[in-house]
Fold each of these.
Amino acid sequence: MAYLAHVWIYDQNGLGIPTDFISFWATGHLALDGFPAQAFDWDILKRIEVAKLGQDFTGNFPWHYPPPFLFVASVLALLPYSVAYLGWVLASIVPYLAVMRAIVGHNFGVLLALAAPFVMINALVGQNGFLTAALIGSTLYLIPMRPVLAGICLGLLTYKPQYGLLFPIVLIAAGHWRVFVSATVTAIAMFVVSWLAFGTESWLAFFHWMPRSSQAILTEGQATWWKLQSMYSVVRYFGGTEQLAWAFQLVLTAFVAVVLALMWRSRVPYTLKAAALAAGTLLATPYLAIYDMVVLAIPVAFLVRIGLRAGFRGYELPALGGALVLIACYFTGTPTGLGTTLIVSILILGRAGSWWRREPALAVAAADSLPFCHEQRNKWRT
């Protein structure tokens, strides 16, 4: 582990290598020292990051998460930097692997979870893509049989609010009120607890600095367009204006929302509904960093589950292989995530078949595709 730390976390001079994780660790120290609101100030946070790493760096690693995520940062800051770094990657990848194993229903799910290049990217920079994928996957896995627990997972996802955009629409359309209420209560509880722990100032700072983050990332492109994988970023990458990019993104988001609302009200097997929502979550947001492409493993897992039980169609495995190759082209400096997500989405719609008939959903329609608990194992179909 010491060798790994010195080639991954520290440079040859023993100084910390600047990656996204330093923002978590530095923010945690500010929170523990009683100044959580200062973490949202880019200049203050960078000074702390430089001091902790022992060297300066170009650019910024800002903190723009809602205050509830300060709890995670605070825990990480209790540990030495290398231990926190490795511990965070391991602690977040375990639930991701477990969810992938559960969805696929076979140990192959673990191998599938580790196969994509964006898994390595997320681990190398110490980001939270594993946690995001685990929460989205857990929510979708649990909705049919454990709606309250599913809602809790969804409520925890509010630390990345851009990925919760479609869930309320779908839950209301499908009548999953227990999930909706549970998620709402969890989100409110997170707000209250973080407010009590970190004060009003932290929430005011979060909202105050949000426009700065949006300006820097979505208008000025400080994160560089090829590192983002949304429709918005692709249009900007190819030279489109901000207005044109927003137009394309809003049209795509609206289309995905309508398709998902209709699909979740239909008799399409739940497996496909879950896969579609996971993929749609990525298509709907304008801010999609490469490390959050880990979420794409969730819809792929649902498709693989179907294929292992009902057989793969002739084009599905080649298409999934092509998607894997396409996402690997990211290393050439090209934003290929959108194309990869579209390939997976088309495969899902191809499986959905006659979903557009909008037939009324039966009570068991949302609970007949996955064995979420042992006693229901024989009820599910793919």
Amino acid sequence: MIVVTGAAGFIASCLVSRLNAANFNDIVVVDNFAVEKKLPNVRGKKLREYVDRLEFFDWLDQHHEQVEFVFHLGARTDTTEQDYAVLDLLNLNYSKQMWQACVRYQLPLVYASSAATYGDGTLGYSDQDDALLPQLRPLNPYGESKNDFDNWAVQQTEQPYFWAGLKFFNVYGPNEYHKGRMASVIFHAFHQIRQYGNMTLFRSHNPNYIDGGQMRDFVYVKDVVEVCFFLLNHRTQSGIYNLGSGQARTFMDLTLNTFAALGAAPDVRFRDTPEDIRDKYQYFTEADMRKLRSIGYELPFTSLEAGIQDYVQQY
């Protein structure tokens, strides 16, 4: 039996699809299923059981002997969330509880961290040295909550026999429709181009980057879940791993590729970055992927061009 938390959300629902495709149907999905707009993400999947996130640890106490693996991908993922109490509850303390339960029952654990932990990138984007974790300065409370848990995890003397924290970079792909403002730029580009025939990007407020020249490591969700599937079958070297494509691309690249996938003439416009996120804005991210490669992950990552083409035309 495989447990997937956050299963009605974006990445976790795609992981459930990947598991189903490999004939894993003995899956327990955990989430707040009262959020109806996310429910289409779990409909039609082959599942064993739905468990409310508030009841999960009681459920695990009763069923831990049947559980083979835990993917803990549930979290409050809104990077503009300012309520530290919510982030402490859902991102930090719930994750600590999950860790402790996996230690108690000796269950392997993969959990979601984030590239938001790297802040403005001053210290780079390397996952090789855990000693750097306390020095990272995330730009928002969400990133802080993820970095706080990473720091806590690496300091634990009691650990699951295998664990991996995955620092997701800019993930895009199917099943993110419910995320609103937090959905990927590609999602917004697709809908804006289709509706209005143009795309509006944030203007650069950094003299080192032209408008549209801000760079991110965009990674297709199908690649992300492929790495999760790899870790399910390769439980050897525990630790924190970057999970991006390893190549930064500009927002202009992304936008022009979306126009191309839709067969539309490019019409790109700019507006000021909202003030509430302007000083919390990452202008460049790029995952150093050598650590994941070093443990035997060999599959190529989907190019931005191919990923956008697949996303736009298939979903």
Amino acid sequence: MTAVMKRAGFTGSLQDLFVALRSDPKFKYPNTEAGRQLYLADARAAIAQTMAAAPRFFRRLPKAPLEVRAVETWRQETAAVAFYDQPAPDGSRPGIFYVNLADMTQVQKTQVEGIAHHEGAPGHHFQIARAQELTGVPKFRRFGYYGAYTEGWGLYSERLAKEMGAYRDPYSELGMLALQVWRACRLVLDTGMHAKRWSRDQAVAYFTQNAPLSARDVVKEVDRYINNPGQATSYMVGQQRISALRHKAETALGARFDIRDFHEVVLAHGALPLGVLAEQVDAWIGVA
């Protein structure tokens, strides 16, 4: 991350960077309807870029379309920062990447691309919509959910997007890396609160010091971890396992490794427990 900070010309510490990302006007959209539309346009452009590159990284793409929408006013107060709604199995509704734009002063420009790639393409849409389109398997394979697999894929996709040509400047890449730091902080926070008896105030203070989230989002996130113990750790645990399996395949196969085939093995069976996913990858390595 420090190397990217140097490329961006940022000379302060990591904590200085987090403060700048939260407060510097150049990293903000106007808190107006025009600012909201600009965010949506940037997110759609980021997704269009990875969609264009996707055939070089995936054997099959989901048939369902993907849309980017702002969270409706009636649920802005309780909605997450961003989330994905899966398409209807009958094709009557597309996959939808929702983003909460209630208060644009809390939104960071540098995170737009990373969030779009996690929630949309090549993240949740490529995994969840693709799983729904599987044939010849039970419904629990098409619609099942394993947190470490699903969120691990989303987090893996943020970095994969870099390989696909995403992140138009060093600050966009820093935004993606800051999102990764956020998920790493969850490992500490969840353990601190549920195993070490940290108070809510301790968790908020640690989060504020070590991640770039806005004050609003820090509080929302901490309350989420309090109410759903362990869930927030699934992102980084899953990403680390998927990345480790990819490294194992690259090492074993050498020149025969094809990223499209690896992603096909990961996505072609629906959501899986990580142990079963490892068995699928090992079996593929054995015959590739």
Amino acid sequence: MTGPSDPEALAVVERTVAAVRPVDAEAAAAAAGAMDGKVKPLRSLGELERLAARLAGIQGTAQPHVDRPAIVVCAADHGIARSGVSAYPQEVTGLMLQGFAAGTAAVGVLARQAGVRLVVADLGVVDPPATAPGENEVLDRRVRAGTASSLDGPAMSLAEAQRAVAHGIALADDLVDDGVDLVGLGEMGIGNTTTASALTAALLGRDPARVTGPGTGVSGDVLAAKVRAVDAVLRRHEGAEGTWAVLARMGGLEVAALAGVALGAAARRVPVLLDGFISTAGAVVASRLAPRSVDAMVAAHLSPEPGHAVQLEELGLEPVLRLGMRLGEGTGAALAVPVLRSTVALLREMGSFADLGLPQDRPTV
């Protein structure tokens, strides 16, 4: 058993799920038509044209915009990390918060270069540092000090899972209220690729070996032990029924919060930019709670983690970038933002054949 629900948190989630709507097909079609009319061979901008239409449909306007993007990095620890499934000790999660606050972590550097706001939230780091004021504030949204090991029992209670999702929704709402028009997902938590593998295998019905990869760089016997650990988690919780039960039993807090961020942004018609394997596990959770939330998602890149391709295939998403990155943190999302900005700039600023008094009909390339 994972205990009773948290009525207040569950009500927040249910209201948000009810507010998620399909894309605006008319806006998407208008944007696609406008791109077709630009001064170029038809469809010659490839995926940029698809992205323009997708962003238009999400935002409900034929003139989509990426003026104030933000990346939300949710951090938490995992009890299963103590089972030797990572190349790094659990203490690294807390230490990384210092880098996020200072702006020296990889996502901080890339976000700064791309002009992207970075928001960091602690959902349950076991040993959070007393960080000095830095470039980025670390928001205290702690539900508990890390999850329990899902090898031994439920990672957290049902109420805790619901509170973590509700925290994510609130984070998204605060950003949208502040004018943010695109929300990227990022994460930090030693052991979270193991948790993401278990969630992905359970929610998508896949073989653990198919969705479990090196994570922080483990290989050989350690990787084999990681696959066995994921399989053991699935067997330990094989009676879990429904998304909430799977999430509570397998974890983790930051994955739950990212599911909430995705739901909150989708409900406000704000594009959700997925990063790698762990953040996409949060997107899978969101898709199970609100299937239409997938309509608001854009995949920033494809990670070499084997489970990521499985997740994106299930969600029906094509990655913007393929750079072989598997760091997480939101780094792929930060790199994809300039591509999305360029896409909407082309739609807004590029001349059309109509401007030149020429017919639009011409062959595709």
